[in-house]
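Appendix B, example 12.
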Amino acid sequence: MKAPVQFHTARLTLRQPQLSDAETIFVRYANDPEVTRFLGWPRHRSLQDTEAFLQLSAQEWERWPAGPYLIISRADSQLLGSTGLGFQAPHEAVTGYVLAKDAWGKGYATEALAALIDVAARIGVTRLSALCHPAHRPSRRVLEKCGFGRDDTSTWRVEFPNLAPGVQQEALCYALALETGKNHAG
């Protein structure tokens, strides 16, 4: 089952990104060193980096039931950031989120993640996980508000290329078990 390419929450529209979004993504958040600090992908240094991400996104949408989404506010259509699902297997996906600085602290990440959890359950995902840098408290709070719990069954070491390129660092793994076909919104 495929995820919807666009859906709405009370304040947001989440939709599949298009190549025409590249410049806005680059300017709003992908090139911002502060915004990308704790992310698992390198800050975009050129518009071509963003275009390459969008091409990868399109491939993910073709290969799997879903892929990256862009978060857009309903009122003025300003791009706020992105979230999405990265599939490891048909029933297992990882998620994450990034917001432009002017969208921080307004509850958008929590609202988008709660909606994404519902989409994941509806398309058959039974385990949703996310990796988080231990020092990124706001991201940990979003995951916990949305029902994720720490998965301490193994030690996770990943590269955070915007903090220390090429260096493996500790990462916290959060996981959420889903019942497929159920609505998980609070």
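The chain has one domain: 6-177. The longest strand covers residues 79-89.
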